[in-house]
Structure formats: C-alpha cells, structure tokens
Amino acid sequence: MSLTELLLRPLLGSPAKPLITHYDDKQGSRVELSVATTVNWAAKTANWLVDEFDVEPGDEVAVVLPPHWQTAGVLLGAWWCGARVVTETAGARVAFVVPGGVSDAAATAVVSLHPMGLGLPAGSVPDRAMDYLTEARLSGDQFSPLSPIPGDTPALGSSTVDEVLAEARSRASSLGLSADDRVLSTVEWTGKEGILAGFLTPLAAGAHLVQVTDADPAKLASRREAERTTADLSS
C-alpha cells in the first residue's frame, strides 16, 4: 500500500475534519483543507502524474517547494502513485518548482503557490514547462494505483514506504502527538529531514497541522490562540 494511503486511510471516517491550515505571513493568507479536500488534491495530482508523465512506482519526482498547502497535495499525490520523492531535479521524471525555479528534470511542473489556488498568469508558463494547478485540477478526484505499492518501494530519498512511515510514527510518538492535537509548525520542508519533521510527523499522528510559512514571530502567539494549537514544531 502507498505511503499516502497508509497515512490518510485512518482519517477517512471524518472527511470534514480540518487537516491542514496554511498561513503565509508574507502573503497575508490563510487556507484550510479538510481531510476530503486534501485527499481530493492528492488524487488529482496522482492521476496527473500517471496520465501526463507515466510515473510508475520507484520513479523519481523532485519536489522543490516551500511548506504550503499546494506542496502537501504534490507530496501526497507523488507517494500515492508510488513515486520516490527527491529534492534534486537532475534525473527526475518530473520536478515541481516555484515560479522562476530551475529544473534539470525530464519535465517541469511550475506550482503557482497562489493562496486561492489560481494557476499561473496567461503567458507566464516557461517553455517546456507546465502549469501544475491549471492542468492537475482537470484530473480525476479518485485514484487507485494500477497495482499495489510494495512497502519496500523507495518513497523519500533512499528510505522506503515502510521506513518512512515507521520513522514518522516514531517521531510523533516521541512528541506525544495524537489525533486530538493541533500542531503549529514553522518547519521548512527542505530535504528529507524537513519533510519528515514538518509534514509527515503530524500527519502520521492524524493531528491537525497549522503550517506557517515565512512566519512573522510577532504573530505566532495570536496564531496559537486563534487556532487553539496544542503543540509546536520549529526548525
């Protein structure tokens, strides 16, 4: 079973439960995703990766993005179709980058990071690149891998599905996190460690992740109060 299914399946009984709340203090935005909406974006991404780029289990998908609700959909979609998430673009079947980002991958998907989920402005998509949000939102809302994803499939860097899940659960347990927690995080999702610490650990616990990007330290106390957070994660 894919890492995404293993992470999200325990949460499907409460589809309306908030799962990810994303603040971007530089943009002044707040976006909240329920379990159902998160699953929907992951499914669209997985379908797009398979249909557009023929991604198969073990293929490298580079994710060079900041912590963001759109990054969550990219990561979960990549794992759902069995991709190995890496953070270097060279050799990847497809790379997800920010506008203006550099990619040496076979194909490049530019993620707008627009707070409301708008795609790139007309005429701004670079040559030989694709607009992730505009393209992927046309894909199906449900996804099933063509075949089961074995637990020994590479999922994050050199670590397998089973290893990544075990590490994320271990970290969540050591922090005392549970599905009742609301976790405020300012961790950058940079490299394997950042993705594990800032994204996968709260998700493995079934906790509500309140991710703050480009955090303004002066606003963190009010974020904790408004979101009723119970735990903090920081770099």
UniProtKB/TrEMBL annotation:
Protein name as catalogued: TIGR03089 family protein
Recorded superkingdom: Bacteria
InterPro entries (alphabetical): ANL_N_sf (IPR042099), Rv3268 (IPR017523)
